[in-house]
Predict the 3D structure of the following.
Amino acid sequence: MKNPEEFPVPKWPLKLLRYLVKPEYLEEIEGDMEEIHFNNLLIYSRNKAKRIYVWELAKLFKPIILKSFNNPQLIQNGMVNFFFRTSVRNLWKYKLNSALNILGLTMGVTCFMMIMIWINHERSFDGFHEKADRIYRISNTFTSESEQFSQAPSGPALGAQLHKIFSQVENAVRLGGNSAQIKVGDDNYFENNIGIVDPSFLDIFDFRLIAGSKADLFTDIHSLVITKSIAEKYFGNNNPIGQLVTMDGQIPLKVTGVLADPVSNSQLQFDMLMSMEFAKVNFNLKEMDDDWGGGWFHTYLLVEKDADVESLEKEINEFIATKLTWFAERNMSYAYFLQPLKSIHLESDLRYDLSNNGSARNVSIFTTVAFIVLLLACINYTNLTTANAIKRAKEIGIKKVIGALRSQLIWQHLGESILMVCLATAISIGCVYLLMPHFEAFLGYEIPFSLDFIIVLQVVIGVIGLGVFAGLSPAFIISAFQPLKVIKGQLTRGKKGAFLRNSLVIAQFTATIVLIIAIITVNKQMNFIQQQELGMKANEVIRVSFRGIQSVRDNRKVLKDRLLENGAIKAVSFQNNAYPVGGLSNGMVMVETGDGKKVSSSLYHMWADADYVNTFGMEMVAGRFFSMEFPSDTTHGVVVNEAAIASFGWGNPENAIGKEMGTPPNVRKVIGVIKDFNFEGLHKPIEPVRILPVANNQYGTLAIRADLSKPFELLAFLEHTWAEINPNVPLDYSFMNEDIQNQYEAEFNFRTIFLFFSSLSIVIACLGLFGLATASTNQRVREIGIRKIMGASAAGLIQLISRDFLVLVLISLVIASPIAWFGMEQWLNGFAYRINIHWTFIALSGLIALSISLLTVSYQAIKTVASNPARTLRHE
Amino acid sequence: MKKTKLGEFEELVLLTVVVLKEDAYGVEIKRELEERLNEKLSVGSIQSALKRMEQKGFLTSKFGEATKKRGGKRKRIYTATSYAHKILQEMKDIRSKLWASITIPALNFKT
């Protein structure tokens, strides 16, 4: 039999027992536990006896048995009660101060939350696809003798064959875009968001299929898969499956499926999908699956789990290089790279990238703004509370006298901070809820918000953390008040207190000044871009797109003559793929450069008629544009822009006239050089373009330059004329300056949001300043009283009070300027066209900061100065 | 104090204390009650009941002897107060009367 004496009570549980149980019960309970353990050892195994001991120990966790961990003094004296009552009284007594504090905190927290929600959304793009981590887009960098650029789409063979050749690639899909006129019954619609995809699309991406069966979606090449919104638009409540629609007046399509609308954080946005086979057959692309070069479709690869992406990339490049001999002979090459799906939205900035890409830079800017705003609110809180604490000095002194420990005071004030932060957060949540719809309306898309445990946890931790952070220094400072000094009224004119408070003011001002400088810079930069000479008269142009419908092409001349009959219309031009907004396509051509080398160059190209330059208000810098007087233009003429000349090294524009482009028999001579015009947005410098005359009647767009002072009249005339001449073709028009606005929409949004949040921070800073000024002048109430009695003038007193603050503002200005300058330089470098940071920005912000402080301080000063010295001096 | 403030478990513990007389200490109370109820009880539940009743005035206690089993720590012997006896008796009477008032034959047990 076991000898129980050799198996004493388990050590650690015993230690725990001794630590937790009330001392007066300890002997008895420890003894009972030991006795039971002893008895158990006689019946059970040692391990089981141990387990029972631990179990019994756990069951001892009842409040009546455990030690109380509050300071016994606290409970015994009813101190807690007292603290609680004084806290509530405080909140109420200093209503103004509390309100200011809560207001400042609320604004800070609301801003922070809204920005974080947006940032979260931006960073969450494409995460909803189940296989997202295995999906890569294969993009490429094209290099020739004359240029190099990176582009998002790749050749069609990649998407058709890579998954058959490489075992690590499980599947692939190509995505192209199209627009068409869709006729449903008697209704005509223009659809710009048509995706052309391989059938593997839904195998790789997760878009929810609401109706139709997945296997049958693309079996018929005339299939059309639509989104829910489109289904409602076309068919209302009727079943869309099996319905027929007509594309571009001739081609019948059948609806085979309905998908849920793509969510806003998907880079792939489409209204409907068509089959790649359709494109192959109808656009004469039967051999495209073997075409390895070029940039046709966005191609996405699904790689197998744990694939070595780097080596796969290498292998793919090596393989494709063997297929690109045609290009290699002409010294052209493609270097392919894989982009992880989720990284594309924020980080990819390639040619022909999907238009809804965001920018990692903007995300980081806004993250910074969010934290600055929050920091401001905290500094605010700290300042206000500390300053206000002086008023509570007596209360604190007395508390200490009746026996409160310093630690208790610290906890109490921390508790108050957390309480205020909680209040502010609660109000913020309400504000965010109210503001979100407006925010979403402004952005143009919805931000879905799901409340999950993690978010709630983050909020709770954030609130407590914030409360502690903001409340820490006031808590410490306050609890350090010495009761005797306090009651005697000798409290802190001390150097230490002043230093801390002044540093806080400086911090607040510095952050504010940085923000003001940033606002001024961003504003000026945006204005600059807006006013940038685009090189064309965009404000006067209307564009009509008719997508190459033959009847319209045939009626060209009639239409043009009729339109020009209207006095408001100044010029009419027909063209193809030549609209200088929204991107152009590019193509290759042989060119002899200035130093005699023959290179194959890839340029943007467009096709225009003789009226093009006139219609868009562009300028020629050398030679002439196409003209009816020179019929040879059609086959032998080409116009290039200044950027093209620079890129070919042809010297000045005059030299360019007569240069040849192309390979025999398709050689054209340059007949003119057009002044650079902006067709890509102002982030990039202008790229080379060549303009060709429209051949074979291949017109697709019509542009009209007109006097737009009476837009409705003009539009009515246009619609009427169009309907007469092209009766069965709907009119699809847009104003060019609106199109340009859309192109820059992202930038303008950014500016507005930035301005909004920065202004908010300034308001928060003002609140803090106001509170500080109040506290400071309150401190000096008696001093002011005495000075008044001694004969000081009101003006002189106000000057005195304001002066201290002004010194602080100046110091802040000095600190803030380099920080702001550096930050803004970084941001501006992202623009191809940018302003320079002028000293006036800094001066202006300094002036604003000074005036703000003067205003708030003066208000307080005037109030104090107007007080009756007899009253203020009485309290001694 | 209201009679209903004495919980069911507390009453059982109290009765056990009365039954055990001088042997009424933690371990023994636990053992006796476990035997009668045919259930496992925890030291914690017994102890908390004892302490609560002591605070409410149903029990008094004093230190008893130390034994080797207990590593030299003394037992605490609990005694019911006269107030406790009074309450127990009153509760017993009330219960008996309630039982007697039940006329459903199946429930009419012979005592």
